[in-house]
Amino acid sequence: MRAFRAGDAQGSGGRQTASSGPVSGSRVQSRTCMALDTATLMTVATGITGLLGVFLLLLWIQERNVRALAWWCAAYLFGASAVTFWSTWKPGSLLVAELPNALLFVACGMIWTGARLFHGRSVRPAWALAGAVLWLGAVQIPDIGGSAQGRVVLSSLVVAPYAFMTAFDLGRERRRELAASFRSLVIPLMHGAVFLAPVPIGLKLASDSSADGVFALFALEIMLYVVGTAFIVVLMAKERVVLVHRTAAMTDPLTGLYNRRAFMEAANLMVSRRKRQLQPVSVLLFDLDHFKSINDRFGHAVGDDALQVFAKVAVASTRATDVIGRLGGEEFAAFIPGNISDATVVAERVRTAFQTAGKEISGHAMGATVSIGAASGIPPVEVGVLLARADAALYRAKELGRNRLELAVDAMELPDGAAQPAPPVGAPAAALR
Questions:
Q1: 103/126 Cα distance (integer angstroms)
Q2: How far is the C-alpha of 197 from the C-alpha of 174, rounded, in Å?
Q3: Per-residue pLDDT tens for 113-127?
Q4: CATH fold of 260-432, please?
Q5: In the chain, what are the domain boundaries?
């Protein structure tokens, strides 16, 4: 806020110029009570900012995987250091007069960078430092550096864009689990709006005798901003940690697919949703053919590679609405929101894609294939019942030669209402045409 204090200091002939150091203690005492409140608020804000910076540093030490915390804690410490430099600055010292302001603008850029990192976006150092560089260059122009209103407007035009960019990067997250809620957007948006206020009234700020009250409001807003932002940062970091642990508990570490527990939960959720519209659901069971032989011939490491190849093929060959998981060993499952015809199309796409991808894995001519069993039903059919039917169909696919799709023995209802038994051997998809 030194830019604003400097502008305030130029309001009367007895005050300091914009390029001078902070107001001395005797002059502060001679000001109005509101000016004393401004100084007090700035002192309190500095102390709070420093303490919150230390708190965020300790939190980052505990949660090193949240890289954004390091940037946020550094931003808070930079901000506290800037105000400390103001209070210790003396004419003739080696400390550059404009360094405190530059540190504040660097802190603004670091908060924005932390918001980008939190959602996995790249760091842009040039943009993060642009505000400080702009300030250091612009204040060398006499009409800006020597003008109270010019310094006020310039600092506003630096701080506000960083605040709006922070809100933008938090708000454009598309993953629902990590999407910024209203609470994480409102604080930077309000901060940016408050700092834009001096732009249209910059001239008035420099000459209005009530400027001290305006600066007191700015000091109060800064204090509320640093506290509110730290609160939101801690909540976001804790939510990220919970999400990481929950994802780890639901994910198969080898393939990255749902594990058995997570698959069953997702499948049951789909059944409950489809039940309201009485829409069918289908399940596909996949089992890699001769997988034990693959492990014996090429080793377990290559066998793991084969499982990973199948997982990638399955993800690429299924739809975004399908739920895929690894049930254990070489057995996988997919839960399909649709009838047996929809499931057959998906199954054949996976089977043919893996037949191609499995010809050579990790440099070994393998010829890996997959057998598939499919079952379908209309909720309130239970997931366990569908899995049992699909498992029986999978067993039959193994008996009939592998690398094929078999449907459950009981007839399935197609969209036109016609009953369709399992397709004949060797032509599983043609039977549904």
A1: 15
A2: 31
A3: 998 988 888 899 999
A4: Alpha-Beta Plaits (3.30.70)
A5: 2-249, 260-432
